[in-house]
Amino acid sequence: MKAKIAVLPGDGIGPEVTEQAVKVLRAIGNLYGHSFELENGLIGAAAIDATGNPFPLETETLCRKSDAILFGAIGHPKYDNDPNAKIRPEQGLLAMRKRLGLYANIRPVTAYKALSSISPLKEEIVDGVDFVVFRELTGGIYFGEPRGRSENGFSAFDTCNYNKEEIQRVSKLAFETAMNRKKRLTLVDKANVLATSRLWRETVTEMAKDYPEIELEYMFVDNAAMQLIQRPKDFDVVVTENMFGDIITDEASVIPGSLGLLPSASVGKNTSLFEPIHGSYPQAAGKNIANPIGAILSAAMMLEHSFQLLDEAKMIRQAVDQAISSGKLTEDLSPKVPTGTNEVGDHIVSIIRSDQWIHRPQLVS
Ligand code: IPM
Ligand code: MN
């Protein structure tokens, strides 16, 4: 197949981890005879430096004419320490989500047996963890109006609003995913306090009538924060609003042992974006120490979601599993004998190109 992919490396460690994902995509393309046409675009602090805009029109156009987007990370300390900065890199990410309509952020959390001793949680709690969070991404308090400061500057306000349609479209994806998994869906909300959460409950409860096989459970977000760490194995599919999803997925990322392992997909009607859930980690930028696995698994999610290349996605996941078992890993996972970002990428590519695959297609080049 032929596909055009927009590559937005962004800031900090974004470029180096994205480079490893691109290597893997090229290896898969060669192996299966797909032509992935990659074009780079600017976003975040890198885009502010070059154009003054964290999500320039040129990048938006590139995204719109591409079949999928591979994204690295966004953020730079020079903006974090300046609360008065009018233009911030994060605005680029939020603008991109909103303008491209990327309404559902899918974050799978999987534990690896070979890493269970690295997790800060007990091995028996971690072994076998496998759930996926659907986070609503273009609504709620992140985007609600009005927002801002009072005239005298002594108070500030944000607005959280949701309409039924926004709740339905992300929840539909969550229900459908649950149907293909263990048929358990947890709605995380704060319906004992918030009107928006009560609308979520009402809407998701109505939708559940179309999925009689699914066991739907409701959980307040404060309780969910506790349960996710105490008994993460009991979760299958979780659906929640934007801000709660942001918080519980960072929390969930400690379960497998490193934030650097987790991929994500941000799905829209016309296009989708794939990115590791970690941030720009500026202290590590350019040092060849960042974990590229989250970025590489994001490329696997792209092949599956955007191009229905299921075998190819599976091959990437199996190669990552083998790399993890081999112990050749970056310092977050192997602090005593760390392997570099680049070398982990090369190792995963060499596993993909090895002749162990029974159903491996003919090498095209
Ligand atoms: C994420 C990030 C972003 C968010 C920030 C960088 C705006 O934390 O993708 O989870 O809060 O959504
Ligand atoms: Mn976050």
Instruction: Report the order of strands and helices.
Output: EHEHHEHHEHEEEHEHEHEHEEHHH
Helical fraction? 40-55%
Structural class: alpha/beta
Number of strands: 12
Radius of gyration: 20 Å
State the CATH class of the largest domain: Alpha Beta
Distance linking N and C termini: 15 Å
Q: How are the strands ordered across the major sheet?
A: 2-1-3-12-11-4-5-10-8-9
Unique ligands:
3-isopropylmalic acid, manganese (II) ion
What count of structural domains?
A: 2
Can you characterise this structure?
With 365 residues, the chain is an alpha/beta fold. It has two domains: 1-101 and 270-365, Isopropylmalate Dehydrogenase (3-Layer(aba) Sandwich); 103-147 and 155-258, Isopropylmalate Dehydrogenase, CATH 3.40.718. Helix content is 40%, strand content 20%. It has a ten-stranded mixed beta sheet with strand order 2-1-3-12-11-4-5-10-8-9, sandwiched between helices. A two-stranded antiparallel ribbon has the order 6-7. Helix 9 runs parallel beside helix 10 and helix 12 crosses helix 13. The two termini are 15 Å apart. Manganese (II) ion binds next to helix 10.
Outline of the structure:
40% of the residues lie in helices and 20% in strands. With 365 residues, it is of the alpha/beta class. The two termini are 15 Å apart.
